[in-house]
Each structure stands twice: as C-alpha cells, then as structure tokens.
Amino acid sequence: MSYPGYPPQSGGYPPQAGGYPPQAGGYPPQAGGYPPQGGGYPPQAAGYPPAAGGYPPQGGGYPPQAGGYPPQAGGYPPAAGGYPPAAGGFPPQAGGYPAPAGGFPPQAGGYPAQPGQGGYPSMPPAGGGWGAAPGGYGAPGGAQQGYPGGPAPGQPMPGYPGAPATGPSVPGYGGGVPSNPQAPAASKGFRGSIKDFPGADPLKDVEVLRKAMKGFGTDENAIIELLGNRSNKQRVPLVAAYKTTYGKDLLRDLKSELTGDFESLVLAMLQTPAKFDASELREAIKGAGTDEACLIEILSSRSNAEIQEINRIYKSEYGKSLEDSISGDTSGHFRRLLVSLCQGNRDERQTVDVSLAKQDAQKLYAAGENKVGTDESQFNAILCARSKPHLRAVFQEYQQMSGREIEKSICREMSGNLESGMVAVVKCIRNTSAYFAERLHKSMKGAGTKDRTLIRVMVSRSEVDMLDIRQEYLKAYGKSLYTHISADTSGDYKKLLLKLCGGND
Q1: Residue spans in the chain of domains classed CATH 1.10.220.10
Q2: Could you tell me where the Low complexity compositional bias lies (predicted)?
Q3: For residue 308, which of 38, 113, 265, 344 is within the disulfide window of CB 3.0 to 4.6 Å?
C-alpha cells in the first residue's frame, strides 16, 4: 500500500488507492517523505504530533532503498504473508515501535496519543482509513470505535444468545444463557438392592434347589434364601447347571412344585432381563385387550441396546417381530408412539445444549398449546428421538416458557391411550425412579393387587435403581415400599418380594 511522502521505489510497494490520505492535524506530506530519523519513530514528549509541521529531519530513519523495506537490525523483518503474529502483539524492538505501558484506552474522538506516551497504538482501520478527526487517529466524525476485535457499538457480544423474540406465536422467556453443553450429572454408584453374592457356585446352588424340591413337600424357604441372595447373572446359569447335573429342566421342576404368584416370581427371576421383558410384552399384546401401560413402561425405560436385544429375542421366541405385533394390536398415533419407541434408536448422548432445548420447547408449544388442534407428530418426534438428559432440559424450558408443566399440556391436548402413553413417557424420562414408585403404588392400591406389574417392576429394577425407587415411594406416599408390600401380599410370595425390596426405610 502507499504511504504519503514515500516516493515509489524499485521493487517496493507501489502506490495504491485507499491508503492513508493526508488529514488535517495529522502527518502532512513533506518533500522527500519522512526524513531519516535515528531508530525509527522514537517516543517523544507530548506524543503526537511532536512539533508543528510533522517530524523534523533527524539522523537515521528509513532511507529509501532499492527493493522496498529491507530487513534492518531491530526492525520488522519481512516474512512470508506479512508480519507474523507474536505473543502479546509487537514487542518493543530496537528501532521499532515500542508498545507503551498500559496501552491506549479508548477516548472520545478516537485513540489520540497522550502526553508522556510514545509509540503508535495498534488499532484496526475504520471505514475510510485511520479516522478523519483532526489531530489524531479518531474515527470519522469523532465516533468511538470500541475495543479492537469486538463488535461494533450497540451490537450484542458474540457467544451470548439473546432471548427469543416475543410474538404471538412464541412467548418470550429466558435469555442470556450460554449454549455451552453441560456435563452429565455425577454417577451415584450402584443403586440396586440385589448384588452379586461373593463366592457363589452354580453347582452348589443347584444342589440346594434339588434338595428343596426332592421328596415330599417343598422347602420354599431354601428357595427364597438362595434366589433372594443371588444377582441375575448368578441366577440365570442355574438353569443350565441344573440340567447338566441332574438331566432335568429346572423351570419345569419349579412349576410342578410351586403355585400362584410365588411361582410366577421365581420363574421371572430365572430369566435374563431381555427375555423376561420380551415375554411381558408378548403377554401385554396377545389375547383380548392390550396392556398399554406395560408396553409404555418397558419401551420408555430401557436403553437402546436393551430394546434391540428384546426385539431379537421376541422374533426368535414368537416368530414375529415386536413391531408387527404392536402394529397389529394398536392403532393411530398411539401405535406410532410405540413403533417409534421399539426401534431402540434414541439419542443417548449425556451432554445438553440449552439453545437446542429451547428450540424443542418452542416446537412443542407451537404444536400444542399455541395451535388449534394438536400436531401429535411433533410430540412423537421429540419425545421418542431426543436423549433423556436433553428432554429433561426441554421440559424445564417448556414450563418456564408456557407457565405449565408439559404433562398438563398433553392432558389438555390429547386423550385416550395416546394421552396416557405420552404422559407416561414424560414421567419416565423426567424422573424414572418416581415413575416406577408410582407404578408400584398403583399395582397395590385399592381392592386387589396387579401382581404382574408388581412382579415385573420388582424383578426388573432390583439391580438398577431400587434404592432410589424406595426413596421416591416414601416421599410421595408417606410410607415405605417395604411396609406396603408387607400389608398387600402374604406368604412366600411376600418373603421373596421383600428380599428384592432390600429393606425398610
């Protein structure tokens, strides 16, 4: 680029339009350009300008040389691509531009040099070059330029998203929250009530079971003590070990010796979690009527890997895919909800992007409360595909935005199986342990007991979050789960259920 007063030089920088034009009070062009000075532009008392008429000639300086600005000792050596960045800017160098201590604070009218400070402040060029204010490097018209590298005055700082605009479609809420992903919550460790029994030996265990069933009568207490103190991965191998040792089927022998709910509970405990879930889904679908709550309970609370294993076992056991069975037994948007859940493709990332959670909350609001009718597909897409930590953030944003919990909005917008299914999905995602505490309470309250639900929840959650379920149960209903089971069941069935419960609170 061109500097006024520097004559064109061979191989140097040719004059270009848009350079630094002469300005009143600035550096007027002088014959011969900037006369040589010793060591460049040294700091001088009273800053810019040193004297009327510019810089007087001094010994040394930047004499015109062939080839432009050749490297000089202590100066700015040419580098490929211009001046390479250095840590902290341009350090003071002999003969260069020394950086004044404290820099040049912004002042009205630009960044003029102050008395007692020398050097040249480093400022980004504004429109029209280095300002047109007389007497310094101010922005044209005396407007303040702000901080180098920052936004223009009156513009928002980058990285801080503002609140959504308030309008008739979406109410304004929140704002100024960084959209940085949040780290997942710290793990609370093992929260199950049944743990691995140290030193368990399948061959010795099946011997105990054989003795308990051999001869006249059955020693139910021996069966309860054994199965109630073994984890699932220690119980399941007993079936193969029993057949290897005695040449008989353990499950068949147990069926012949036990009866009722106690039999159902014992047989459930000897299956793998996925096989047990597949059998429960089969029971919920086949026959007259459908246990919709069971379908939602299993499909909304299991991980992707667990659902995919359930699908595999269901197909091999019953010769039909789980999706086909659901499609043939349900209809409408409720069928679509179940089919979406049984794919096992939910996002399982643990990080949460708050800005995306706000967007999803807006979509749910626009699909329900802020619309005539309801766009069920939007609810389906978000509730079945997003990660559980993300959805918990969406529910929180939705409540802040609409002033209503999303479960209440669903109840206002939907009905029937779809309403109960959507609400169950939300409850399970919001607080899984509280959801299962509610399932257990409903299975035991009133006349009679829904034993299939009671058995399924106690067996499937005993090694996952039974301790948390007990806490939620006590908080919600004012008495312990242990106490309620004791009052609602009896006999050997009660004893084994209390083993799975793991204690009183």
Answers
A1: 274-344, 354-430, 431-489
A2: 1-34, 42-55, 63-75, 94-115, 162-171
A3: 344
**Which residue type, as a one-letter code, is found at position 471?**
Q
Which residue do the tokens 């993300």 mark?
Answer: 390
For the chain of 505 residues, list the mean pLDDT of each consecutive stretch of 10: 48 48 48 47 46 47 47 47 46 46 47 43 42 40 43 44 41 43 62 96 97 93 98 98 97 97 98 98 89 96 98 98 96 97 96 96 91 87 97 97 94 94 97 98 93 98 98 97 97 98 95
User: Tokens standing for 232?
Assistant: 């699932």
Phi, psi at 126, each rounded to 5°: -95, 175
Long-range CB contacts (within 8 A, 24+) of 263-266: 264/451, 264/452, 264/455, 265/455, 265/458, 265/459, 265/493, 265/496, 265/497, 266/223, 266/227, 266/496
Q: Any idea which residue has 């069920």 for tokens?
A: 376
Q: What is the largest CA-CA distance in the chain?
A: 124
Give CA–CA dist 332/334, Å, rounded.
Answer: 5
Residue appearing with tokens 């810019």: 48
Q: Residue 304 and residue 299: Cα distance in Å, rounded?
A: 9
Rg (CA), the chain: 39
- Grouping H, G, I as helix, E, B as strand and the rest as coil, residue 361 is helix
Residue 325, token pair as written in the block:
């069975």
Burial 89-101 (b: 16+ CB within 10 A, else e): ebeeeebbbbbbe
The CATH number of domain 274-344, selected from 2.40.170.20, 3.40.50.970, 1.10.220.10, 3.40.30.10: 1.10.220.10
Helices (H), strands (E): how many in the chain? 21, 0
Per CATH, which fold does 354-430 belong to? Annexin V; domain 1 (1.10.220)
Q: What is the C-alpha to C-alpha distance for residues 222 and 333, in angstroms, rounded to an integer? A: 49
The angle formed by the CA atoms of residues 229, 230 and 235, to the nearest 5 degrees, is 145
